[in-house]
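so my prof wants the structure for this chain in the tokens format not the other one, which i didnt know existed until like an hour ago. anyway here's the sequence
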Amino acid sequence: MSELTDREKEFQLLGIGVEDLEKLIKTRSADQNIPVTDILIDWLELAQYQLEDRYTNVHHMLNRVLYALHTG
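here's what i got, hopefully its the right format
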């Protein structure tokens, strides 16, 4: 079995490539006139929910990031 590329690992973990996610967030922010941080908070909350059963330490890390984004 061959090693996964970084992009393949991103898709396996996140369901999307990081570069694709960055473009999606920036496009949505511009199209809907929503701050990028609001979109990131929504996305991170979804990712946290999806990962919490499999990756407890990722769940806790996302909690800290979300708290920091909410509190500025």
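also thought this was worth mentioning. The chain has four helices and no strands.
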